[in-house]
Amino acid sequence: MINFIDSLITTYSLIIDAAILSNRTITPGGMQRAVVLMKDGKIIDVVTEVPQGDFPVTDVGDNVLMAGIVDPHVHINEPGRTEWEGFHTATKAALAGGITALVEMPLNASPVTTTVKAFDEKIKAAQGKLHTNCGFWGGIIPGNQNEIVPLIEKGVLGFKAFLTHSGIDEFPNVTEADLRKAMPVIAKHGLPLLVHCELSDATHQPLTTHLHKNYLASRPKHWEDKAIALMIRLCEEFNCRTHIVHLSSADSIEQIAKAKQKGLPLSAETGQHYLYFNAEEIAEGRTEYKCAPPIREKKNNERLWQALKEGIIDFVATDHSPAPPDMKEIGAGDFMKAWGGISSLQFSLPVLWTAAKNHGCNLDDMAKWLCEKPAELPQLKWKGKIAKGYDADLVIWNPEQSFKVDTDMIHHKHKITPYLNEELYGVVTQTWLGGEKVFDAGKFLHLNKGHILYHE
Q1: Looking at CB atoms within 10 Å, which of 96, 265, 396, 443 has the fewest?
Q2: What is the pLDDT of residues 414-437, one digit of tens each?
Q3: Quick one: 283 and 361 in the same domain?
Q4: Domain span including residue 13
Q5: Are residues 33 and 143 in the same domain?
Q6: Rounded Cα gap, residues 338 and 344, in angstroms
Q7: How far apart are the C-alpha atoms of 96 and 427, rounded to whole Å?
Q8: Is residue 414 part of a domain?
């Protein structure tokens, strides 16, 4: 008599496309030795032993098998500013870094994604250039409230707004009055509103502009704190899913924690650069470190780490925002004139892991902060976990192996990054997309395999 296990193995052998075995597979139940079975781009099961059958098995030994990374905060800039970055270079860099899904911001493309017409142009620009999966946020600016529902119907995953100047004139900041028009509509459809939280005031502008400490002083923590207080109040009033992007002020941790304790639909992210670098270490004229909000002092950033460990900060996202060398003031070193953005998409995993292991964190934490929690924001329901029924988007990496960042390995359009020459731990060895190995040992095996991710 055939027992249940024999029957199951026989059934699997008929339907499995491929399997991956790892001694360190990160599942929702924790890290374990497991075999991931795949069919038609999906995980059909996670088992302890390889079933018998005629299908390829990839044994990665002690390398970590993790769900593909999800980065919901990426600026690709195409169409219109493809000389800054583009779908081809950005998604290729993402694939090399183990990122199997990203969500692109409504700026810095031109036109900005604040209308259906602009959204259609972006979709057209992305055709044939996506090497990993990519979704899109719509933008909220003054006067475009009538575009919100049409953009939702087109499939945007949510909306982004700025409370201070975005750096792009076509994407002006909103006021509280603008948000009062937009948030009830967004809330009705259950989508998130992502907010750049800085409320600027007449803070003194420095005379010496080559020092990071002066730039830091020009964007103080209270700008963030006031803006976050406003968004918490509006989140509660409209019961609108509200997400604080790139939190850098540790002084806002308490108010975010209290809002969550009240059950408000509030979430927050921080960036790798706030957890890896400290303001005290940034030398004169090193504008590759400029971002907004700025990288703050070590004492502040250690508090961010604690909030991340406690779950007050939900996840970590790159805010990849590249620009050409002249816009970054490379050479001139003027922090007040330089474009505020850090190129980091390809190094999302190793940067965070290098810092995390020095803060007593483990591999399960990495899966939570880079995969599971980021997938929840844009409601990518079948991504971010290694579990039955989920998409077979996977990354395999070696947490013990280190490498030094050099320009030859960078796939971003521009090689400007503060991580250049940094020794990082965590080498991505393979990336799988839809059950197919697309990146292996530094080589791209298959490109143009990415899909556009729409709101369902």
Answers
A1: 443
A2: 999 999 999 999 999 999 999 999
A3: yes
A4: 4-62
A5: no
A6: 17
A7: 10
A8: yes
